[in-house]
Amino acid sequence: MADLPAQPYAFPFNPAQAALLIIDMQRDFLEPGGFGAALGNDVSRLRAAIDPTRILLQAARNFGLCVIHTREGHLPDLSDLKRAKQQRGRFVPRIGDAGPMGRILIRGEAGHAIIPELAPLAGETIIDKPGKGAFYATDLDMVLQGKGISQLLVCGVTTEVCVFSTVRDANDRGFDCLVLRDCTASYFPEFHDQTLRMIAAQDGIFGWVGESVDVVARMELCHAGPARQ
Ligand code: TIU
């Protein structure tokens, strides 16, 4: 398949070796009363990424592209929550405390769920992660290797935190990342812009930055995608 328009230059999209990686599109970050709000953020700022990601996810499913979702969160007994993460900052409530969507950032609670617009389908891989980067203390690298994936189309929140941590790590692990500008978002628009600039700077020091419309158009052009899930 031909290259996709991207910064700093065209991305050599190879769908048979690509996965759509949707990072932490959880109620805890996008809805009031969750972890993002507990940190003092205006969570409505992230919602612009929902619709483009929903359209891209649908196109990926129609095409047969590998889809992987991640969720940040912790075990109910907090045994996988480092003291430094639990105690960081001066805001309350904190991770594990009760909130309107259940205990904040705890696996199985309502707030930990992926937002309904992007809910995973049966058969799609979900990676539960205790850190910011999606490779830290998870099976993600093994799963990607097992599926023969070498390219990641990256969506999710927040751009400068979990998305960038994951992209930096993916770059060191040998993956080519195309980060979708309209399918990522931050509580701080200037951080979103600068993070994407950093990824594409120095002729793609961490990877590429593109727009979902180009990926969708490319997948729609091709009727018979590779059968994989
Ligand atoms: N606070 C913030 O911007 N993000 C996080 O804590 N986690 C993710 O980015 N997923």
Model description:
The protein has 229 residues and is α/β, with parallel strands linked by helices. 33% of the residues lie in helices and 18% in strands. The strands form two sheets. It has a six-stranded parallel sheet with strand order 5-2-1-6-7-8, with helices on both faces. Helix 6 links the parallel strand 6 (151-157) and strand 7 (176-185). It starts with 17 loop residues before the first strand and ends in an 8-residue tail after the last helix. Tricarbonodiimidic diamide binds at residues 24, 29, 39, 72, 132, 157-158, 161-162, 187. The site of tricarbonodiimidic diamide has 10 residues, from helix 6.
- Give the DSSP E fraction (strand runs of 2 or more residues): 15-25%
> Strand tally, please?
8
Bound molecules: tricarbonodiimidic diamide
Largest sheet: 6 strands, parallel
Structural class: alpha/beta
User: Can you count the helices?
Assistant: 8
Q: What characteristic shape results from the CA principal axes?
A: globular
What descriptors fit this protein?
8 strands, alpha/beta, 8 helices, binds tricarbonodiimidic diamide, 229 residues, single chain
Summarize the structure.
The protein has 229 residues and is α/β, with parallel strands linked by helices. It is built from eight helices and eight strands; from the N terminus they run βαααβαβββαβαβαβα.
Which helices and strands appear, and what pairs or packs with what?
Layout lengths: L17 E6 L3 H4 L4 H4 L11 H14 L2 E7 L10 H5 L10 E2 L2 E2 L21 E5 L10 H8 L3 E7 L1 H14 L3 E10 L3 H16 L3 E3 L1 H10 L8
Parallel strand pairs: 1-2, 1-6, 2-5, 6-7, 7-8
Antiparallel strand pairs: 3-4
The structure holds tricarbonodiimidic diamide.
